[in-house]
Amino acid sequence: MSEEKAPAVNQLGLSKADYKAGASTMCKGCGHDRISEAIIQACYDLGVDGRSVIKMSGIGCSSKTPAYFLGQSMGLNSTHGRMPSFATGAHLANLDMNPIGVSGDGDSASIGMGQFVHMIRRNPKMVYIVENNGVYGLTKGQFSATADRRSPSKRGKFPREDSIDLCGLALELGAPFVARSFSGDKKQLVPILKAAFSFDGLAFIDVISPCVTFNNHEGSTKSYTHQKEHGVTYHDPFFIAPKEQIDIEYEDGELQEVTLHDGSKLVLRKLEKDHNPAEISSARSMLMETRDRGEILTGLIHVDTEQPSLAEVSGLSREPLVRQEQGDLRPAAGVLQGINDSFRI
Amino acid sequence: MSEEKAPAVNQLGLSKADYKAGASTMCKGCGHDRISEAIIQACYDLGVDGRSVIKMSGIGCSSKTPAYFLGQSMGLNSTHGRMPSFATGAHLANLDMNPIGVSGDGDSASIGMGQFVHMIRRNPKMVYIVENNGVYGLTKGQFSATADRRSPSKRGKFPREDSIDLCGLALELGAPFVARSFSGDKKQLVPILKAAFSFDGLAFIDVISPCVTFNNHEGSTKSYTHQKEHGVTYHDPFFIAPKEQIDIEYEDGELQEVTLHDGSKLVLRKLEKDHNPAEISSARSMLMETRDRGEILTGLIHVDTEQPSLAEVSGLSREPLVRQEQGDLRPAAGVLQGINDSFRI
Amino acid sequence: MNPVVNDFSVRIATPNGTGSQTSNIVIHRALLRMGLAANAKNLFPSNIAGLPTWYQIRVSPGGWQTMAESWQILLPLNQATIGKDLRESAPGTVVIDNSDWKTAESAFEGFVRYPVPFDKLARGIDNAKLRPRLKNLIYVGVVAWLLDIPIKAVREALETVFPGKTEVVDLNESAAMIGHEYASDNFTKQDPYTTESADQVGNKILVDGNEAAALGAIWGGVSVVAWYPITPASSLAENLEKHIEKIREKDSEGANRFVVVQAEDELAAVGMALGAGWAGARSMTSTSGPGISLMAENLGLGYFTEIPTVIYDVQRVGPSTGLPTRTQQSDMLQVAFHSHGDTRFPMLLPANPGEAFSMSCQAYDLAEKYQTPVVFMSDLDLGMNNWICDPLEEPSADFDRGKIASDEVIARLEKWGRYRDVDGDGIPYRTIPGVTLHPDAAHLTRGSGHDEDANYSESPEVYSRNLDRIARKISGMVVDLPEPIFKPGHGDMGLIAFGTTDWAVEEALADMETTPDYLRVRSFPFHQQVGEFLENHETVMVIEQNQQGQMAQLLAMEYPQLAGRIVSKTYYGGLPLSANFVREALQSASEVEAR
Amino acid sequence: MNPVVNDFSVRIATPNGTGSQTSNIVIHRALLRMGLAANAKNLFPSNIAGLPTWYQIRVSPGGWQTMAESWQILLPLNQATIGKDLRESAPGTVVIDNSDWKTAESAFEGFVRYPVPFDKLARGIDNAKLRPRLKNLIYVGVVAWLLDIPIKAVREALETVFPGKTEVVDLNESAAMIGHEYASDNFTKQDPYTTESADQVGNKILVDGNEAAALGAIWGGVSVVAWYPITPASSLAENLEKHIEKIREKDSEGANRFVVVQAEDELAAVGMALGAGWAGARSMTSTSGPGISLMAENLGLGYFTEIPTVIYDVQRVGPSTGLPTRTQQSDMLQVAFHSHGDTRFPMLLPANPGEAFSMSCQAYDLAEKYQTPVVFMSDLDLGMNNWICDPLEEPSADFDRGKIASDEVIARLEKWGRYRDVDGDGIPYRTIPGVTLHPDAAHLTRGSGHDEDANYSESPEVYSRNLDRIARKISGMVVDLPEPIFKPGHGDMGLIAFGTTDWAVEEALADMETTPDYLRVRSFPFHQQVGEFLENHETVMVIEQNQQGQMAQLLAMEYPQLAGRIVSKTYYGGLPLSANFVREALQSASEVEAR
Ligand SMILES: Cc1ncc(C[n+]2csc(CCOP(=O)(O)OP(=O)(O)O)c2C)c(N)n1
Ligand SMILES: Cc1ncc(C[n+]2csc(CCOP(=O)(O)OP(=O)(O)O)c2C)c(N)n1
Ligand code: SF4
Ligand code: SF4
Ligand SMILES: [Mg+2]
Ligand SMILES: [Mg+2]
Fold first, then answer.
1. What CATH number does the domain containing B221 carry?
2. What counts of helices (H) and strands (E) characterise chain D?
3. Which of C475, D7, D420, D494 holds its CA 20 to 30 A away from the CA of C82?
4. In chain C, which residues have pLDDT < 70?
């Protein structure tokens, strides 16, 4: 299986260190650092060329993390809540690049809600990660819109509103790839990330990522402990790259396979209960049921590989726009003449 | 029943004309005008004092309509997509007032998505009407975010993205009062509006309101014809004010009653199929099922009278803030002394 | 009575959304067919149907494209405004009214009246379904009779409006003929106004500024367009989409070499434009007042991280919603220092469709060469009204993509850093993700303090140095920005204007004896010539279309030593500026001087 | 060696988020307990833990509250910056370093070094769990030894920091004593710096500007607060909530007479504030750069529809994300002309906590009296640093709610209209929904063109008239806005500053022989005195904390005739301004004059 002991270099001949970047300035133990590690692991395993990735983010502790992974990739740390629009523009400019968008719960669910919703509708190819800790870390611990009503702040205050479930929202909006994971569960997060990279469309991943400084205390529903106690999942996922030999034996019905656009597969080993992420109704009811029970569902919640991506519906050339030259872009001599004629009096 | 032939004056001694305002400047036949009429009718029937209402709106044809109903009420025509925040502020300033927010699909689902979502979470007492025509009327017919993918523009272009179902979104966000109606169906819209006025919390009503100038052509899924052909409902509603004598005879199980905060009732006469709007799961499944069948569900979709309103969770005085005087607001003599002491070195 | 040939304005008052716009355009087009450089201004409300609209067509010997303050011929065909329309007309005005309305006779006193029973005549239109729209054509016929416009010209105009639809043209023509016949049967000409064919237009074209700017963008190589609808900017992006679909060559698979995205709002639109610019595509967004306000924060990011993109601000009357369908030049101060913190945005100030095309095209070079958002400051009058002007000129310059840190460049430079001032001009070398592959190229662009190598820094020195370099870079743009245009006069007074104010100035100066020296500013930051112009004139009047005198204020800030010489004259009622305003402004100034 | 008593700066370099902040505050507080007007500046990064922070405490005979450019005592306790910290220190600086780090001896050359084995000493702390935090207290003890700060003062400081927690105080004190003992056992004093109790503070208080402004808002009667977190503004709203919960009297049912809403963003925050202001409540929002940019459009609505509200802009270093935890005065131009179209926003310019309190309180009267958003322009240095100042003064004036069209007023006025200029001062009478019940009161407030009766209008005359009235109203505010403060000097030069720049100016002027006349501007639009000041001085230097000289530019715009007299001096590195900068600026000017 691909998660077993990694070789010293990957298929590109790169070592894991080649996927790292500057030293993190997160607090020690911050969930966000674990997500950066998972991204590094996934890209290393997949043999991604860092130079084909662009890292996009908004503002927040989470949004700083692109400085701490994939040092060979360029990135843009934009404005608060606006990562989706910057990423969409960058994506359209160059379809060859693989955007990873990193955001926070404040960044996406509060100020960025509008862009979050509309990015899902547009469905650009992109991995969209929300590093969800239920607080504004960088501004020192105010509630975000994913803070649960029953989850007190360190000072014992409670949020006045119900929290937003970004996965629920994404499902309602028709997102084609909806997953949730936990920064403390690399075993689950890494294969999901790999599947997300292989997905041609918006792959949304809500990652519960505890803020050790402001929201990891008793009673918090975004703490490491809470997630360990209340997280549920219905699958053990593992990822198989197109080239990998599949030598897994399995009983019928125990495993579900999701074949992604580039031919790779996410294999889901069923636990306890049936849940077929390809069926939207199954996804919806799983999410609602667990939510009603106070559980936090993780894993691949929904996937739909049929939905056309933004580039497709835009009829966009596969040759990146950034590579088009003056000869491709400026109309030929004579065309202006014709236009002038049409304006003639 | 309350919808029978209206008397010449209502309980306040006001005639219907007292609930009108300036002449409409909408296009002839515009759905929005019918909604204004329904608001006038509902307020007249309820005997609302116009001076206890504030009319809030954003920008668009729809958002202009507060100039055309309830001429005795004050109103604020704010900026594009920002009605929710202005209305929230005005509401908090004076809990005695009853805000009616009027918005468009462009105003609420495109630029205003963030405020729409967060207003639902906050749950201020207010009637929130989206006059939904699937286009930007005032800027001449561009697609809005509620334009269905299969619904062409007058020039035959199709939207590139799936539409947003504002009722679905409201349900997912936990809105306590979710309804949909049709500007062409006053019989349904008026009682729903009355129930909304009587509701202590956010009463959201998505009203399909055809734009005769830009989106009423063949193929459009927001046309009068389309709504008449594809609209479905499971209830005939009627509204009973607290003081009204109930002399309706009914068979058990045929009628559902929703008792609202002021003691009035919305009575739902069952059609065809069972749907209990007090059950969120019933609401969800009805909405999903009809949507999947290409139908547009109208009626009261969901109601939850238990959810605490913004004023409640804020512990706000029932005495309106605007009526508080200097004596109530400025700390007593001596308090500053104490504060200075605490700052003493 | 001597005939007045080719020298009058016709004002047509109608409710909007009733189809009268077609008739108005037909009259305008018919005059154009006669070789007259007729100008038309559309004064429309912020509404879809039913509110007052005025359409004013002007024919003048000089072929002026400005709106006159008065009119000689009035068609008060809106019952809601007829009283006001008549009151605002000068004695002797020719009035063509609807006699079926039974307006009090007294209202027409002092006018030359041609009463037409439009409602009755309309019953003569066979096609009942189209009758409400065709009814408007009747007044076209009456006007044609009045001004002696050949029926042929009317038909040709109809053919331009309904290309290839002979049946529709026939229907419309016959409706017009109803009016024409009624007038020739019932009226004798009592007024002097008439037309004669002439050769005022020659090779000229008729186009509005938004369409010209849209074409400029295509020639400038734009490939990512993100916008959000707003009057008066919408037609810029809409025309761009329409044309680019046709004239931008497809790739070998027939796919698009561009993308146009209708964003969910202006925050997203400018975000997409900046994202695309950052990734290396030529990108743009277009908007007006409220939208430009919403873009403040993101534009500040673009300025400080040095991302090329082009913003079109088609100005309308502000503040707030203001008069969304009226014209103004009142976003100047806001845009110049947009966003919090120290910024100074380059602005292009086109005055006519030719410049709208060329400056729009050039904007992409400027944005990429100087790695900054460039703001194209148009206005509703330029953007949405049609102008007779010279044909658009093929740009002579090739794309200038500026300093791109290709792999070779990085290898060549001793040490490449995203924000290093290698050449001493303040302009660093930028990378393009996926194109620049050199291992040193990667970095994270950020709006927070950063050093020459794009690393995070909170050092005061690094911060100040960076800000200074950017300021130097922006100031350095003058060598490539459109130069001011100097037109010598006789007086020792100077006159400064910009944008569409130019048309009124040109017309006013044309018939003055002692004209001031005139400098038309075409960009910000200002060229040296602007300072010299202030130095060379004791008094410099600045005429502009906003309340505060924003250009005058910008000049005072940039040239404090000379600020005392500036006299600011402003119009801010929202109508296109008239030559008369300029005349009176200059008059008042010379009076001041004479005292 | 003569002792240097009560005249030095101590600079402490640590990584943030390690608990060192407590130790720093204890040192500061201990000096205050001695009666010294010690000032402390916290230079912190935009980060939660691990990045470099500096804390600089200054004791001076004058009790100056500005930061000195240099320091006499350095604690380089951050391994990431020790090299830089030492390099930046002047020869002779006293250095207390961590000798366990094995820093090269050579780095300490020229300094007076007291090496302390902090790591080793820390092992002496019993409480293993608290050891990492308590470890920081060791250097408190060393500093106490060095400066002869009585242990009693340290203990009292700890009691202020941990009120009522004797156990914690004991623990901390004993940690401090480890350092104190080590130092007294191992070092002999080799430097001259020491302290003595004094009476510099008297009745004074210690408070930061955000807390003072928050209290001012409570005294000003704010009842609807909507905000979105952002450094350095967050603590304003947070303190407001904390205090108002305690000191605003509850109603008879124990319910709140206020509401604080954490909005989803700044667009919503200002929308709520304006909605509440429109409805008749006193309302506010607070933010910084990026947030103030996002408020542009809605503030324009507030300006044009004439809605009272108060906006607090705690300025930080821009543009874009800039240096979010550093100070600047660089939003001046943006705010003055915020939003598209012609606007001119009144700004209050507090320089110290006393003014933060009084101007914040007054802002609500101004907003309601003049029916406009009023912007309170603070900055990070004022807002987040503690200042020693006079006690806050109970406001003497009662609420001035301005012209409210009550039922009686409407009945009395011949014809009431929301935007009628009844009194000739440009200020109309406003209604309060639900309170004004007169049948004529109802109207629809709108951001589009409107006439005196709030009806929709596209008339150019109506529009211009309305804009002119608003401009007149805003200009008329000067009678109530805080006046500039004039401080006569000797030279014939003038000096203008505003906000926190004042502290550095005051200090610089105190020890100069020939001082310029000094005018501290405290609001915009400017008072007549400002123009007169320019008139009375051939040269007026304007010192401010931004790159462009934004105040100088505003002055040039407002007084073009006198603009040539303005000399602009700017600092924009983000540190609190030093007196030395002012001294050098004045020096350079007098050199210019001498030439
Ligand atoms: C327009 C704007 N408003 C406010 C801020 C201040 N701000 C910086 S980060 C942040 C919250 C970030 O929270 P989240 O996205 O959850 O990230 P986290 O730090 O928790 O990872 C805020 C409000 C800003 N930078 N820009
Ligand atoms: C910030 C901003 N952007 C754009 C506009 C232009 N605009 C006015 S109305 C409108 C769309 C309105 O559509 P909708 O809300 O659906 O209302 P409708 O006219 O269809 O009733 C737009 C984009 C604006 N006024 N403000
Ligand atoms: S404050 Fe919270 S989110 Fe930010 S780095 Fe620290 S632990 Fe992580
Ligand atoms: S354009 Fe459409 S939405 Fe607007 S008034 Fe006309 S019909 Fe109604
Ligand atoms: Mg967070
Ligand atoms: Mg609409």
1. 3.40.50.970
2. 21, 24
3. D420
4. 592-595
- Give domain status of residue D402, yes or no: no
Last residue of a domain, one of D389, D418, D450: D389
Region of residue A26 (phi > 0: left; psi between -120 and 50: alpha; otherwise: beta): beta
- Does C473 reside within a domain? yes
Query: Which residue's CA is the closest to the ligand 3 atom numbered 2?
Result: A211
Token match 């080719």: residue? Answer: C6
C-alpha–C-alpha distance, residues C297 and D256, integer Å: 35
Q: How many domains, in total, are found in chain A?
A: 1
A309 burial class (0-12, 13-18, 19+ CB within 10 angstroms)?
A: buried
**Residue C327 and residue C379 in contact, taking contact as beta carbons nearer than 8 Å:** yes
Mean pLDDT in chain A?
94
Q: Give yes or no: residues C317 and C436 share one domain.
A: no
Residues of the domain holding D530: 485-594
Task: Please report the residues numbered 60 through 79 in chain A whose beta carbons come closer than 8 angstroms to any beta carbon of chain B.
Answer: none
**CA distance readout (Å), D173 to D166, D180, D590:** 10, 10, 52
Say if residue D131 is in the same domain as residue D191: yes
CA D156 to chain A, closest CA, distance in angstroms equals 26
Judge: D265–A59 Cβ closer than 8 Å, yes or no: no
Predicted pLDDT at B270: 83
Interface contact flag, D344 C572, Cβ < 8 Å: no
Compute the distance from residue C402 Cα to the ligand 3 centre, in Å. Answer: 40
- Residue D331's domain is classified under what CATH number? 3.40.50.970
Q: Using CB atoms within 10 Å of the CB of residue C174, give its burial: 0 to 12 exposed, 13 to 18 middle, 19+ buried.
A: middle
- Domain boundary (C202, C223, C250) is at C202
Per-position pLDDT tens, chain A of length 345: 445 565 589 999 999 999 999 999 999 999 999 999 999 999 999 999 999 999 999 999 999 999 999 999 999 999 999 999 999 999 999 999 999 999 999 999 999 999 999 999 999 999 999 999 999 999 999 999 999 999 999 999 999 999 999 999 999 999 999 999 999 999 999 999 999 999 999 999 999 999 999 999 999 999 999 999 999 999 999 999 988 766 555 555 678 899 999 899 999 988 877 889 999 999 999 999 999 999 999 999 999 999 999 999 999 999 999 999 999 999 999 999 999 999 998
Query: How close does chain A come to C346, measured CA to CA in Å?
Result: 22
Residues D122 and D249 in one domain: no
Q: Can you tell me the mean pLDDT for D443-467? A: 97
CA distance C275 to A91: 8
Q: State the closest ligand 3 atom to the C-alpha of D17, by its place in the atom list counted from 1.
A: 6
pLDDT, residue B1, reads 41
In chain A, which among 57-116 make CB contacts under 8 A with chain D? 59, 61, 77, 79-81, 110-111, 113
Interface test with C, best of A20, A92, A96, A323 (most C CBs within 10 A): A92
Q: Letter for the amino acid at D358?
A: S
Structural domain boundaries enclosing A23: 16-312
Pocket test of ligand 3: the residue of A24, A103, A146, A212 to mutate, having most ligand atoms within 8 Å of its CB, is A212
Beta strands in A210-310 (DSSP E): 231-233, 235-240, 255-259, 265-270, 296-303
Asked if the structure places residue C396 within a domain, the reply is no
Is the Cβ–Cβ distance between C276 and C307 less than 8 Å? no
What pLDDT, in 10s, does the model give residues C400-410?
999 999 999 99
Token output for A118: 């509309």
CA dist A206 and A105 (Å) reads 9
Q: Is residue D400 part of a domain?
A: no
Contact yes or no for C467 and D572 at CB 8 A:
yes
On whether both C551 and C438 belong to a single domain, the answer is: no
pLDDT digits (tens, 9 = 90+) for B139-167: 999 999 999 999 999 999 999 999 999 99
Nearest to B210 by CA among B43, B32, B81, B51: B32
